[in-house]
Dolichyl-diphosphooligosaccharide--protein glycosyltransferase subunit WBP1
Amino acid sequence: MRNLNILLLFFLVILLSGFHIESKSTTGDRVLVLLDKEADKILYKKFFATLEKENKLSYKLPTDSSLDLFEFGERKYDHVINFAPKTKKYVDKVNPLSLIKFMNSGGNIILATTSKTSENIRDFVREFDIEIDDKDTFVIDHFNYDISDEGKHTLVIIDNNKGNSDDSITNNPAILSKKVIEGSPILFRGIGHKVGSSPLLAKILWGRNTSYSYEVRGEDQKSIVDQEPFISGNNIGLVTALQARNNARITLVGSLDFFSDRFFDSPVHNVITSEKFPKSGNEDFAIDLVKWTFQKKGVIKVTSRQHHKEGETEQLETYRIKDNITYTIEISEYANDQWQAFNGTDVQFEAIMLDPYIRKTLTPLPVTSSPDSESRKFITNIQLPDVYGVFTFRVNYKRPGYTYIDDKSVVAIRPFRHNEYPRFISAAYPYYTVTASMIVAFLTFSTVWIFNEDSSIKNKMKKTN
């Protein structure tokens, strides 16, 4: 009896632990946090407390000899938060090449930098067409800075300029919520970076027209501009995201202070505009940033796909040229910790043989079955091209902030069989008339030739007789 109780207790523990480790992220809840010093953890207490509600955090130093991102060829962690930009020497198993391998295996990374960022981090982000500004440089703005800056103008205020040309925050709802976009301004003190032209990159936060990045010198920490800044204005990247082709996500934040409790709770007072806010928007912004990077939002997937002739339901592997077909695809979006219907309106269908022969926008259908439906159906009716061969029906949906969809199905399109061509078409009537007239003429000629006798031969026969 005692053994039975122990066994039941054992299964109960397993069951409860299973509920405990259930993650709300689509990729997992194991998070590795890298810190320059163990004492730095207290600086980001509120940030880490929020993460620990839904994730398992492991705090490590990048110089820890036991640190490894992989175990038995598999990832030990699902996400990495690198708050150790100053550490010059990482262990071999967490160097830039290891981080790239981690990303290629599907891991996500949040990377915070400072004006003292080491070459390890610089080399790592160069792989993604991002160049961090020189050491000891800061983003400076003499027109948008907080009153607590004490004349240095490096505590920059970033807010949404309500649709004007000087907006400095993305309006992409897949990355940031409306609460963050229209909420309190964001405080930023850190280093800027130059964003390349890679289509995989997306700018989330960037400098105003009045900002520039330059070295800060002297005890008073004032900038001395004696040459052209490396980057300036809207070209200054403050927060930039990259989504790799395997949908792994990396977010680069140019400020380590951005995640600190001090910045989370700090009031905002713009000296120039005299605008005051009781609290910055850093905390809400950071939460949205983590959700997106950890693939808790902006994740879409195909749940089903079907194609068939109009008026039929059977999906075929071979169609005939000029057939009218119906193509449908169902897409789900992960948001608010659950799968729900995707609300996109720009999903396109392509029929491809080397090049697209048909490209058409799919029509989203209303979700009528249930308000909690986990997918939305997109549909289109097309006529297949007058070209036979092997075609690919493809939905290639790649939009900033969303995971990529590249759904393909291969079908064969055949020509008409000999008994499938249309008969007696009007365009052929002239040819029918010519053929009929030739037949009538031939029969008339033959009849005349056979039954018409030569009169001279007939007279000679009479004389002979």
